[in-house]
Amino acid sequence: MGISSKISLLGTETAFDVLARAAKLSASGMDVINLGIGQPDFPTPDAIVQAGIDALKNGHHGYTAANGTQELREAVAQDILKYRGVPVSADNILIMPGGKPTMSFAIELFGEAGAEILYPNPGFPIYESMIRYSGAKPVPIPLLEEQGFSFDADQVLSLVNNNTRLIILNSPANPTGGIVDKRQLEKLVDGLKRWPDVYILSDEIYSRMTYDGQQHVSLLSFSDLRERLIILDGWSKTYAMTGWRLGWGLWPEHLVPEVTKLCVNYHSCVNAAAQMAGITALTMDQSPVNEMMYAFNERRLLIHQRLNDMPGISCVLPKGAFYAFPNIQGTGKTAKELQDILLNEQGVASIAGTSFGSFGEGYLRFSYANSLDNINKAMDRVDAVARQLAKG
Questions:
Q1: pLDDT value at position 21?
Q2: Whole-prediction pTM value?
Q3: At the N or C end, where does the chain have fewer CB atoms within 10 A?
Q4: Which domain holds residue 363?
C-alpha cells in the first residue's frame, strides 16, 4: 500500500528551490545576490516586534478562537474601512497562519471533480497546484505583456461556463507587478451578473504596494459581489512579517462556519503572540510602511532602467508589489536556461517565468526587495550575460 495518488497532483514553489540552491552556492564561497525570494528585506518594525515579545511575557501563549481573537478581527475590520472604504463585520473575518490557508480553503470549498476554477497565468504557483489537488480543472487566465499584465474581461468571461465554481484574481500581482485596470474589473463584475453562482477569490496581499499615486481598487468596492467574494490579505508583505505567518480572509457570512471547521481541522488557531503583534501593526504609526515603499519605488525605477538598457531584454514598468518581470526572449534562451546561467555562473538568483505558469515562458522574475547597491551589482552581472549572448 502506497501513499495517496492525490499527493502527486501537488506542485511547489520554485522560489524556495532557488533559495536553497542559492544558499548552497553561497556556502561554497560564491558571492550570491538573491533577487529570487519574494519577501521584504526590511526588518519587522520595532513596535510590532516589541508587541510580540510583550504578549509572550504577559502570558499570551495559549490557544485562541479558531477564527482569531475578537480584538484582531475588529482591528482588521477597521483597517478594511480605512483603506478600502467599506464597512465590514468582524464576524466575517478569519485570521489565518499566512495567506495560503485562505487561498487553499477557498479552493477546497469549491474544487472537486467536474468543477472548473479560473486562475491568473503567470500567477502565484500555488493557485494551480491547489486547484489540481482539489480535483477541479485549472483554467488559466492569460496575463499578457501587451495588456500591462492585466486581463481582458471579455476573454475572462468567455472562459466561464456552467462548470465554473471560482475565479481567482490577484492585483497587484505576483510575479508580474501588474495591476488590473479598473475598467476591466467593472466589465468583469457586470458580466458576472449572468453567472450568479460563480464565486471570486481576490488575492490582495499586495494591496498597500502600489506606485505613482495609483490607488488599489479592491473588488470589495463592488457591492454586487459581496455575497460571493472572498478577500485574501495579511501582514507579510506590508509589514515585513513573512515568517510571522499571519494573514486574514474576509468571507461571505454563509461560508464562515464552513471555513471555521477547516481552521479547526487544519491548524486549530493562529499563534497568539503573533495576533497581538498584528493588532499593533494595524494601529501603529504607519511611517515604517511608507518608508519601505519609498525605498521600493527607488529600486523599482532602477531595476526597470537597468533591464531596459540590456540587449535582448525589455521590461514594462511594474505598477505594484516588488517584482520586475522582464521579457528575455531576445537573449535566445528559455526562462529556465537563463535562470540557471545567472545563478550558476553569475551568482544572481532569479525565478524563471515558467515557475508561474506556461504563459511565463520568455520571462524572468526579479524581486527588487534588495538594496540599491545589490541591485546594481546584480544588474551588472545580468548585463554581462546579456551582452555575451547578444554576440552569439
A1: 87
A2: 0.95
A3: N
A4: 5-44+287-390
